[in-house]
């Protein structure tokens, strides 16, 4: 499997009948540290079998979109044989109930339901390790805070774990602001608003139209209440997603279990510019500056980086390699 967080080269094998699904998955892979190859990239004048064989041999993983149409395609079967020949890891993606080839029937396969849960099974399988997107506003399994407010009245806070299988667990609390919060404080039961109410349910996210659906059951104060909330994303800023539900309430969703340590484009350009400085004899100054940057990020929570003591003895090249390894830069 490929090294953690470098771009993964994926050969995508599919029937032309399933091209619409392949296009969706190509877009997902390109946004999430992967590069794809497939038979559509064969150019006029290429020797078809040689070109495809080279693509499969050059790939890190072989993603097989399997369906009744793929089972009838001689090209898909030929590509699968080449993947076995070159010992590429094979990821089956079952689009319908067509039985998998006998050689793959012991493998866990992905289904189209994965598209409704952030494509998490696909991205984890392709990366070969637990996956987290670089973009903290990308809807993906993990811990999230969902907040809504009604102007002047108050609102609610939901701390939720969105699981890869589509389940939700978490707690809800009422906000202690606005008219309702003031009234509760005046009447002496503000503590009730802060009582966590257990939540469970299901979630799906339709990335084609930016629509998140949360079906949640709350059990508290002797009652159970189920509510389906559909939030359409309207913007992304400051590491959060803004949206509006069908009743007009404004929502903010913020990821709780991960903050990106990835450098901004301007910072990445500056780091890349350091290479020229090193070559021109400014290595000592560049290494001092870069050590300071890495130590600052480490102290702010980027514990995947080397410790300050380790950074003290690292060369420029070793520091760049450590940043590449955790996806802070692409060099």
Total helices: the number is 10
Structural class: alpha+beta
Q: Give the CATH architecture of the largest domain.
A: 3-Layer(aba) Sandwich
Biggest sheet layout: 8 strands, antiparallel, barrel
What is the straight-line distance between the termini?
Answer: 20 Å
What does this molecule look like?
This protein has helices at 19-31, 48-58, 68-71, 74-85, 120-127, 178-187, 190-193, 265-299, 308-311, 316-325, and strands at 8-13, 34-37, 61-66, 90-94, 142-150, 154-162, 167-174, 197-206, 211-220, 223-237, 240-245, 250-255. The protein contains 10 helices and 12 strands. A hairpin with a 2-residue loop joins strand 9 and strand 10. The strands form 2 sheets. The protein has an 8-stranded antiparallel barrel with strand order 5-6-7-8-9-10-11-12. The chain has a 4-stranded parallel sheet with strand order 2-1-3-4, sandwiched between helices. It has 3 domains: 8-127, Toll/interleukin-1 receptor homology (TIR) domain (Rossmann fold, 3-Layer(aba) Sandwich), CATH 3.40.50.10140; 143-255, Lipocalin (Beta Barrel), CATH 2.40.128; 265-325, no CATH class. It has 331 residues and is an alpha+beta fold. The longest helix is centred in the C-terminal third of the chain and has 35 residues, at 265-299.
């Amino acid at each position: 499997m490929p090294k953690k967080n470098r771009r993964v080269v994926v050969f995508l094998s599919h029937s032309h009948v399933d091209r619409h699904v392949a296009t969706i998955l190509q877009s997902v892979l390109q946004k999430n540290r992967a590069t794809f190859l497939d038979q559509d990239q064969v150019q006029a004048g290429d020797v078809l079998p040689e070109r495809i064989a080279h693509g499969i041999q050059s790939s890190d993983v072989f993603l097989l979109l399997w369906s009744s149409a793929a089972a009838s395609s001689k090209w898909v079967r030929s590509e699968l044989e080449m993947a076995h020949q070159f010992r590429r890891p094979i990821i089956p993606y079952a689009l319908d109930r067509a039985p998998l080839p006998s050689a793959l029937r012991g493998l866990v396969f992905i289904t189209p339901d994965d598209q409704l849960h952030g494509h998490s099974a696909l991205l984890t399988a392709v990366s070969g390790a637990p996956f987290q997107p670089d973009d903290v506003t990308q809807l993906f399994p993990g811990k999230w805070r969902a907040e809504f407010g009604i102007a002047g009245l108050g609102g609610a806070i939901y701390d939720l774990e969105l699981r890869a299988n589509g389940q939700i667990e978490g707690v809800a609390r009422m906000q202690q602001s606005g008219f309702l919060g003031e009234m509760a404080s005046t009447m002496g039961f503000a503590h009730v608003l802060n009582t966590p109410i257990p939540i469970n349910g299901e979630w799906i996210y339709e990335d084609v139209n930016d629509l998140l659906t949360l079906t949640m059951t709350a059990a508290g104060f002797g009652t159970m209440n189920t509510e389906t909330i559909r939030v359409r994303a309207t913007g992304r800023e400051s590491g959060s997603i803004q949206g509006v539900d069908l009743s007009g309430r404004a929502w903010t969703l913020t990821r709780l279990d991960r903050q990106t340590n990835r450098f901004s484009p301007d910072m990445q350009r500056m780091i890349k510019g350091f290479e020229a400085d090193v070559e021109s004899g400014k290595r000592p100054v560049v290494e001092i500056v870069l050590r300071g940057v890495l130590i600052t990020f480490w102290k702010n929570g980027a514990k995947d980086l080397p410790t300050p003591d380790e950074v003290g003895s690292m060369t420029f090249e070793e520091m760049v390699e450590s940043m590449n390894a955790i996806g802070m830069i692409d060099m």
